[in-house]
Amino acid sequence: MNGTDYKKLFLLKDGVTFLNFGSFGACPRPVFERYQQFQLELEQEPVSFLTDKGPAYLKAARQALGSYLNCDEDDVVCVTNPSYAVNIIARSFPLQPGDEILTTDQEYGACDRTWKYYCERAGARYIQHPVSLPLTTREAFLESFLKKITPATRMIFISHLTSATALRLPVEEICAFAKEKGILTFIDGAHAPAQLPLDLRALGADIYTGACHKWMMAPKGSSFLYVRRPLQHLFDPLVISWGYNSMQPSHSRFLDYHELQGTRDISAFCTIPAAIDFMQEHRWEQVSAQCRRLAHENAGQLYELLQQQPPAPVHDDFMGQMVSCEVRADNAALLHDLLLREHHIQIPVTRHNDRFYLRYSINAFNSQEDLDKLFDALKKIYRKK
Predict the structure, then answer these.
(1) Alpha-carbon span 292 to 178, nearest angstrom
(2) What is the pLDDT of residues 40-89, one digit of tens each?
């Protein structure tokens, strides 16, 4: 299939060049149709759905995730988004005055705010290691980052793929090093599942969260939280509900606490197996590899147009299907609206710390024509200055 054929499988509006898959994903038609079937079933038989069928549907979702992520189905629960998962962990993590959470200055803003809030409450410190860009090698990053570990470091919290700068960080080596030192690791993999190969057993992270509604293409509001079993007792749910002192406890308090959350629409969670089936049917690992090539082959032109150096070498060690470039211009904050209004291109321009970044995301329906349209628009915009 080519990009045009794949686009027919999605619900995206015609007339807009969609280069922003990374923000919220997009749901394929067959997956969305399954989602609507679950929602209809919920409305037709709400009691039966929520009390009888719902637990079985959630188990099926966990089984599908366990197989896809290579982890035990009882060690993963469905959550609405990775920020929700980070709140679960940060709220319950037993921080003491003087403890440190080590991270980078490249993390997602909502997660930074969560950790800062709970660290301040506990008298702990949230250490944001300043990443010197451009990155050169994985080894150089590791040498710089791991030097920030101190006797007070209780956890390393770090992105698998950063949001604004779209950089793949060497989390495999970080997890291995931290394990040797007895330090817990929490990986924010919001962008990783289905964009990068992901094997949780091989990775060895203590805690991992990822979005299903981004690159896995499940409906919005479907993500997961994985916690290694010996640690699960540490983490309470954000909402105390029927899972606490359950009258019919299951074999896992972790599942009871985080699944039994009262009345809510779990249809997006129930659709996760359909999203995984869609990827398997369409050989998504091959599709993803093709998308990475297209993203990487065009990166040089983006950096040249915006007169910037790449934030890292352009290859699989540092980049997936997203490419980000700093924008240094007086109108950087207005660039997103300008591209959408005048050129019908949907692409994020985000502020991170004191800098702006334009980031394109490539998925199956994108083509060279889409990127050429972006480049032509950027030429016209900056020619006017």
Answers:
(1) 30
(2) 999 999 999 999 999 999 999 999 999 999 999 999 999 999 999 999 99
For 279, phi and psi rounded to 5 degrees?
-65, -40
SS3 content of the chain, % helix, strand, coil (to 5): 45, 15, 35
Which CATH topology does 32-277 take?
Aspartate Aminotransferase; domain 2 (3.40.640)
Pairing of strands 349-352, 355-361: antiparallel
Q: What angle do CA 328, 332, 336 make, to 5 degrees?
A: 140
Residue whose tokens read 């759905």: 49
Q: How far apart are CA 336 and CA 281, in angstroms?
A: 35
Structural domain spans, the chain: 3-19+283-383, 32-277
- Identify the helix (H) or strand (E) that includes residue 296: helix 284-297
For residue 33, give every residue at least 6 positions away whose Cβ sits within 8 Å of its Cβ, in sequence order, or none: none
CB burial of residue 38 (10 Å; 0-12, 13-18, 19+) = buried
Q: What is the pLDDT of residue 4?
A: 67
